[in-house]
Design goal:
Blueprint lengths: L3 H17 L4 H21 L5 E4 L2 E4 L2 E5 L2 E5 L1 H24 L4 H18 E2 L1 H19 L8 H29 L4 H19 L7 H8 L2 H25 L9 H21 L4 H20 L4 H29 L14 H14 L8 H14 L1 H26 L26 H19 L2 H11 L8
Antiparallel strand pairs: 1-2, 3-4, 4-5
Helix pairs in contact: 1-2, 1-4, 2-3, 2-4, 3-4, 3-9, 3-12, 3-17, 4-5, 4-9, 5-6, 5-9, 6-7, 6-8, 8-11, 9-12, 10-11, 10-15, 11-12, 11-15, 12-13, 12-14, 12-16, 12-17, 13-15, 13-16, 14-15
């Protein structure tokens, strides 16, 4: 029996249990945290080729297996990527246990991780695109679990994912035809254009970016963080798998110019719009756009170092988004997220929001600094002007974050009224304080972000391990 079925079936079973007990948060969320953490640690510390005993049966994690006529392959790259997904899910489920008002994230999140795991394992890649479509539709339930919240973000996201699917399906057929008839370069050019168009939609590249700030603004904060980190990371790994499977896509010399141009434009637009934002939700979305631009520019260097650094940036972004999403969720529990003086009632949520935002833009000494700085150094040798533009774009969300913090830390306006005779004394409204458990979790997460920023060796090694599997650009 192969172990990869365990990573797909067990989260689905746990999702059904968590949904059954969704009214009891102290049951549903521990199930989600325990299953995700156990699977993530299993992938990290158990070799692929050694059998382990599960329920009296020997299981080998690695290898290939056929399920319903489709092949599932678990190699080194998929092992690291799956571990990233499950550990990211475990951290976000733990935060949602204390901070999410709705309990649907535990069950929907587990099912989402199972589907995203299938995206990374299934072959051929056309079926990965279909599974991702199902995962995107499912994620809407967690994004808008509160019926009072607007649903524009989720609908926009689903619309762009649906628009990306035909291009991936047609390009798959065109690339297979090109492999048989390499004397027809039109097939290659058409497939490359379709693949680029589809992944531009999935990544939120300008001008297909409106869903990114909308999801962050309208969706539940921790569900948005799960979508940007887990689903966004899966899209990035899927893109690398496409390039590895179809190396003809990067054979054109215009590859570097196109990717770099798209990356710079996306980062600049995200930076300019992020500079003007006062709401933390939209600010998080525009910071993700700047990150996406940097990822594209790094991939456009067509080097193994660039791939390693982009994967490290995806890992660091998940930590930053978890911290920023937790801070935003904590602020929403105490009032309007951009209300003046709200930081006085939720100081530790404000700290989490600030540290997460600084990490997302690569400010030292946070976890996002090392991959950002590494990509800047890589780009500077070949394109110093591009590097300067990307650094200036990263300053945009930083300015927006400072403006937001100034508003949160400012003194709230005092309402002065005239009391009529005979009116009694005003009753004092009790101020809700942050739970000690929430404070401890936020402080540990913020300390981890700074610790990984000071000692980034672990993240960089994990990224290099995953990047080593993509050999299209050599060592």
């Amino acid at each position: 029996m192969t172990g990869m079925v365990l990573f797909l079936a067990l989260p689905l079973i746990a999702a059904a249990l968590a949904y059954t007990f969704r009214q009891w948060r102290n049951v549903s969320f521990p199930i989600a945290v325990g299953v995700s953490l156990a699977l993530g640690l299993l992938l990290l510390f158990v070799p692929l080729d050694q059998p382990i005993t599960v329920l009296g049966r020997e299981v080998v994690l690695g290898g290939a297996v056929t399920v319903l006529g489709r092949e599932l392959v678990l190699g080194t790259a998929a092992q690291t990527a799956l571990a990233f997904l499950f550990l990211t899910g475990a951290g976000l489920f733990l935060l949602a246990w204390w901070l999410a008002p709705e309990g649907l994230l535990s069950s929907v999140g587990l099912a989402l991780l199972s589907l995203l795991g299938g995206v990374l394992l299934i072959r051929p890649l056309i079926y990965a695109a279909l599974l991702f479509q199902i995962a995107a539709a499912l994620s809407i339930l967690a994004l808008h679990a509160d019926p009072r919240s607007p649903v524009r973000g989720g609908l926009r996201y689903l619309t762009f994912v649906v628009l990306a699917l035909p291009g991936l399906m047609v390009s798959h057929w065109m690339l297979d035809m090109y492999a048989v008839t390499p004397d027809q370069p039109g097939l290659l050019y058409g497939a490359a254009a379709l693949v680029g168009f589809s992944f531009a939609l999935l990544l939120g590249v300008v001008p297909f970016h409106p869903w990114v700030p909308a999801v962050a603004r309208d969706g539940a904060p921790l569900a948005s963080a799960l979508l940007f980190s887990a689903s966004g990371g899966t899209v990035w790994f899927l893109l690398l798998s496409y390039l590895q499977t179809y190396p003809w896509l990067v054979s054109d010399q215009r590859w570097v110019a196109v990717l770099t141009a798209l990356g710079v434009i996306t980062a600049i637009v995200g930076g300019l719009l992020g500079m003007t934002q006062r709401g933390p939700g939209a600010l998080m979305g525009y910071a993700v756009m700047v990150d996406t631009g940097l990822l594209l520019a790094g991939l456009g260097q067509s080097s193994r170092t660039g791939v390693d650094l982009t994967v490290a940036l995806v890992f660091a972004r998940s930590w930053s988004l978890a911290l920023m999403g937790a801070g935003l969720a904590g602020l929403r529990l105490h009032g309007d997220e951009a209300q003046p003086g709200l930081a006085r009632r939720a100081p530790w949520s404000t700290v989490a929001l600030a540290v997460g935002g600084l990490s997302l833009v690569g400010f030292p000494p946070t976890v996002g600094f090392a991959p950002h700085w590494g990509l800047y150094r890589l780009l500077f040798h070949a394109q110093p002007v591009v590097t300067l533009l990307l650094m200036l774009a990263s300053a945009g969300p930083l300015v927006g974050l400072l403006r937001l913090l100034y508003r949160l830390l400012s003194r709230p306006p005092r309402i002065v009224g005239i009391r009529e005779e005979g009116e009694g004394e005003e009753e004092e409204v009790p101020v809700r304080t942050e739970s000690p458990a929430v404070v401890v979790v936020l402080l540990l997460l913020a300390a981890g972000a700074i610790g990984l920023g000071l000692f980034p060796t672990g993240i960089m090694r994990a990224a290099a391990r995953l990047g080593a599997s993509f050999t299209i650009w050599g060592p």
